[in-house]
Design a protein that fits this description.
By secondary structure, the protein is of the alpha/beta class. It is 33% helix and 14% strand. It has 9 helices and 8 strands.
């Protein structure tokens, strides 16, 4: 989610930048939903305990939740966030969004980023899908973790830098939230001695959420071709990246 590596390049303001990020929206959304269902249904806990010859039924039952009626706050309501929101609404979840500007998308109220702290205390689940930028680096830090329910599920499929991983580790150890699912990290590959690897109640995947589309190379080539045709025809390229959206 995002084109943050471009922030390191001196791109003039009159240069238009386009992204193929929309091609990954569905797979990233599916990955976030997979993490949520895994954590809600205690699948990760059951796998860990049952592989050590334990029968985890009594321990896992208190952890179980159903998605229906959960209050889900999606931070970053672009293509990925809205894809997640549509699916969760169909499962009966109560979805609220946060983005750079307020609006309504498919019946979901999307608040502006400045409202985030006021919305956190009501959330059962927070899913991060926003780009990394100056205003979103460590957007979720000590102040925000202190506002969360102890039963909260946190999922990050955006960029590792949008949350403070050190504070997340402390919060997990202290029981400040229920659990977390992370596909992205501040340092990648995730170091073998990173505290996240030994933190309790955390589900980690190695930045794979965007993969799974079998014909992705062809889709990228088609996207580039279409943009070149637009430019040659005097039209603006598609899927433009707005510089500094956050």
């Amino acid at each position: 989610a995002g084109t943050d590596p471009l922030d390191l390049l001196p791109i003039p303001e009159d240069v238009h930048v386009s992204s193929s990020g929309h091609l990954w929206s569905c797979t990233v959304a599916e990955h976030a939903l997979g993490m949520l269902l895994t954590l809600c249904r205690g699948i990760d806990f059951s796998i860990r305990t049952d592989q050590t010859d334990q029968w985890s039924r009594d321990q896992v039952i208190p952890r179980l939740r159903r998605v229906k009626d959960l209050a889900v706050l999606i931070v970053g309501y672009g293509r990925i966030g809205s894809e997640i929101g549509r699916t969760l609404k169909s499962l009966g979840a109560k979805v609220t969004g946060v983005a750079s500007s307020s609006r309504t998308v498919d019946g979901v109220t999307v608040h502006q980023l400045s409202d985030l702290d006021a919305l956190i205390p009501e959330a059962d689940v927070i899913i991060l899908t926003l780009p990394l930028g100056p205003l979103t680096r460590h957007l979720i830090s000590r102040t925000q973790f202190a506002l969360m329910k102890k039963t909260l599920i946190l999922i990050n499929v955006s960029r590792g830098g949008v949350l403070d991983e050190a504070v997340l580790c402390e919060t997990l150890v202290n029981g400040g939230i229920s659990c977390a699912g992370l596909d992205v990290f501040e340092n990648e590959p995730l170091p073998l001695n990173d505290r996240l690897r030994s933190s309790p109640n955390v589900l980690l995947t190695p930045h794979i959420a965007g993969f799974g589309e079998r014909n992705i190379e062809k889709a990228i080539a088609v996207n580039v071709r279409d943009n070149l045709q637009d430019i040659l025809a005097g039209r603006m390229p598609r899927n433009q990246v707005h510089q500094k959206p956050y």
